[in-house]
Amino acid sequence: MKHLLILGAGGFGREIYWLATESIGYGEDFDVKGFLDPDIHRLDNFEGYPPIVGFEATYELQPDDIFICALGDVKIREKCCKMIKERGGEFITLIHKEAYISKNVIIGEGCIISRDVGISCDIKIGNYVSIQGYAIIGHDVEVSDYVYLGARTFIGGASKIGYASVLHTNAIILPMVNVGKNCVVGAGAVVIKKVKDGDTVYGNPAKKLDY
Fold it and tell me: Mean pLDDT in the chain?
């Protein structure tokens, strides 16, 4: 049996611990060993969690260790995942038992697929993608690495979501509309046309936000 280590013991990390215990393979293929976090006291006021056993940068990897990253910031997530991978670490993909995944779906490593997510057919999902509860992904969608899809996001058929982009809660991407890399789509935004690399959009219809 493999032993899962969760990168990050903050609020998201605590959520991922409980998700892991409800995911496919828990108790048969893997258990949860604990957390990796720079603050050894981060769980002092919480009960029911495994211990913080070290810090990502200094933890000595063991042969049966596997990893999942529970860091919300996509840039920090990328940095920490690469830190573990470069030292030979293996990432698992967590899929909640109540997620729906159709046929001809390719899912990369290190992904988090939460409760009641709906994934249609013929979809490609990259590595280290986080998909929160009740998100819906239509047919023929491509989701690149390190993307974050907030709760209740909707991605219409044949759309593409670029590298390390963030779609916040209730964001809607209409069919055949592409979002570039390193983009941010605000909560409740309705995207009706292409979002260029690095843009932040909000509203209905979604428009570029200039700081």
Answer: 96
DSSP string over 70-123:
--SSHHHHHHHHHHHHHTT--BPPEEBTT-EE-SSEEE-TT-EE-TT-EE-SSE
CATH fold group of domain 95-208: UDP N-Acetylglucosamine Acyltransferase; domain 1 (2.160.10)
Helix (H) or strand (E) holding 11: helix 11-21
Give domain 2-92's CATH number out of 3.40.50.700, 1.10.3720.10, 3.40.50.2300, 3.40.50.20: 3.40.50.20
pLDDT digits (tens, 9 = 90+) for 138-192: 999 999 999 999 999 999 999 999 999 999 999 999 999 999 999 999 999 999 9
Closest CA to 159 of 174, 146, 170, 169: 174
Q: Which residues contact 124 (CB under 8 A, 6 or more apart)?
A: 105, 106, 141, 142, 143
In the chain, where are the structural domains located? Answer: 2-92, 95-208
